[in-house]
Amino acid sequence: MTGTPATPRYDLPEADAFTRTYWDAAWQGVLLLRRCGACERVHHYPREFCPHCWSEDVSWFAATGRATLHTWSVVHRNDLPPFKDRTPYAAAVVDLAEGPRMMTEIVHCAHEDLRPGLELEAVFPEGVPKFRPRGGPTGA
Ligand SMILES: [Zn+2]
């Protein structure tokens, strides 16, 4: 394998056969969620069965990429590469428009502009879903 970085990176996903679909879509700029055919509830992170009713009748669908900010924490220190070169960054929990909560990172937003309920949209730098303020960057 060529191009393996000398330093391990802890920010990029390792896809397995099940999550490959999710990460391939993310590379295309699409956030996939899973919906249960039995109870019709949506969940995230992706599982092979419904976490609400345990049905295995779950399938992928494309989310809107819209979310609102639930809570966040500005991380000032993280020694794992490459995070240490990115601090401070905003680790966050967002409420997806489809219902589930998602752990993510807020980008293109000055940290002092973060507030509960901030309207967000998904972006996919390096194929990893993150969120920015809807309608464009604020501040830095
Ligand atoms: Zn279900």
From TrEMBL:
InterPro entries linked: ChsH2_C (IPR002878), ChsH2_Znr (IPR022002), NA-bd_OB-fold (IPR012340), Thioester_dehydratase-like (IPR052513)
Occurrences of domain ChsH2 C-terminal OB-fold (ranges): 60-124
Residue intervals of the ChsH2 rubredoxin-like zinc ribbon domain: 23-58
PANTHER family (UniProt xref): BLR3430 PROTEIN (PTHR34075)
The protein, known as: Nucleic acid-binding protein
Species of provenance: Streptomyces griseorubiginosus
